[in-house]
Amino acid sequence: MTSLEDVSLQLNNKISSIKRSLQLKSMGNDPSLATMLQKIGLELAGIQNNLDTFQAQILRQQAEMKSLKDLKNSVQKNSEIAHHLLENIPAHLPKKAAMNSTADPQDDKVKWDPVQPLPEKKPAKPKHSVREIEYLLMEEFNHVPGYMKGRMTYDQINAVIHELNAAVKAKYKILHQPLKAMANTTRNQYNAYKEQETKETKGQCFFVEADIKDFTRLKVDKKLQGIFSILRHCHRLREVRGNHLVRYVLL
């Protein structure tokens, strides 16, 4: 029954459509309505153009929305990476090597007059530089064998390096002082440090266990010896033994 009603409804719609078409055809033959039909046709064409424009704009905005969404995801990802880096900054970062420049920045400003003799330059006082142990990089730490590291962390090893650098700096500050300006206690330390030197340590910076006890809060125990093994493995230190003394030379 329902199918017959649907067929009847479709036939009625067709008949109504044919009737409207015949009416429009008869209107087209009527000169008084021809102008109106032309106007309606022009308006329909204008509406179609507007619809095409709107559709193109919608497609363009959809493409822009997709681009903005991709940009939002990229910014969010970079923000998460930056937040992770901020929360995991190593306590000690390796120092950037200084660039040696042979050019004098004043050369461009000072012009030499051939009539006047060149001024005599006073010899600059030599500055004593104290070598430091470079902090380990995470990549180096990851390549240290597990039996060496044990439970030691990256930050713990670099914290020990920081203490050892402080000890070396304090020791060589005494060694670089003028003898005339030294107090008796300092002179005794100076003489003791000089007695520690050998041919193998000439021109090198080194420390011994006594320096660790004097200038740091570190305990000279098995754990510290384990860190020394890691520093030797990573080419930060080497040992020079002699006269019942172990000297840790900075590389």
Q: How many helices in DSSP terms?
A: 8
| Structural class estimated from helices and strands | mainly alpha
Order of helices and strands: HHHHHHEHHEE
Backbone shape = rod-shaped
Radius of gyration, in Å, reads 44 Å
- Separation of the first and last Cα atoms: 101 Å
Strand content: 5-15%
Mean pLDDT: 82
Low-confidence stretches: 97-103
Helix content: 55-70%
Number of beta-strand segments: 3
The profile of the biggest β sheet is:
3 strands, antiparallel
Strand order of the biggest β-sheet: 1-3-2
Structural topology:
Layout: H1 2-29, H2 31-87, H3 138-142, H4 146-149, H5 154-175, H6 184-196, E1 206-207, H7 209-215, H8 222-233, E2 237-242, E3 245-250
Antiparallel strand pairs: 1-3, 2-3
Helix pairs in contact: 5-7
Plain-language structure description:
The structure is a single chain. With 251 residues, the chain is mainly alpha-helical. 59% of the residues lie in helices and 6% in strands. The protein is built from 8 helices and 3 strands, in the order ααααααβααββ. It has helices at residues 2-29, 31-87, 138-142, 146-149, 154-175, 184-196, 209-215, 222-233, and strands at 206-207, 237-242, 245-250. A hairpin with a 2-residue loop joins strand 2 and strand 3 (245-250). Helix 5 (154-175) crosses helix 7 (209-215). The longest helix is centred in the first third of the chain and has 57 residues, at 31-87.
